[in-house]
Amino acid sequence: MSRPLLVARPEVPAGLIALPVRTQLVRSGDDLAGIVAHAVAGIARPGDVIAISETAVAIAQGAFVPAEFVRPSKLAYALARRAGALATVSQPESLQLVIDEVGAWRVLYAAVAHVLGRLRGKRGVFYEVMGEAIAAIDGYTGTLPPFERAIVLAPREPDAFAQSVFERTGIGCVVVDANDLQKAKILGASLDVRRSVVENALLDNPHGNADEQTPVVVLKWRGAGTNPLYEAAS
To answer: What total number of domains does the chain contain?
Structure first.
């Protein structure tokens, strides 16, 4: 049984807990909203927020490409060899999908800007220049079999998907991109969910990035006063 993870951050109200929930392995074409509803039955209730990994949503939508189907260019190989450990740019197949999306010249410009930024002591310029083009593609490291060599793309219409889970369960929902680098971004949310609070509560990535098979996390408010997970009624 999953252990509740106590959230202890200055920007997160005391009293929030994050409860990872194990599900069946999500596959392309699955009714993910139904899988989630079944998994959280008896765990989540109105006033909680269901956080679903973007990877699970994308896989259920078929938004992924097997690495074997991608033929990296010389540019993709050259840049990947010089990249750090971050998955998307260190894997030539993933980087080739970025090149296909935005063009080689933009990727080259971002790479040069990155080098110049490093000379000035600034990090992350490549990602700033590329923006959503690179954020939309996840490398294949750490994904469960049979998707360990799948390059996962951005989920389609995450707001609509989150709203569909709310309509199925009566519980607020978000689609989140979180990792072990203390970063979390809400890609989609049902109505009235307070995105900033949910993002902060998920910075420790309670979903996990290994073989936990917990693409769902239920956030619960156990503090006093108004529930911070939702916007106050006007």
So the answer is: 2
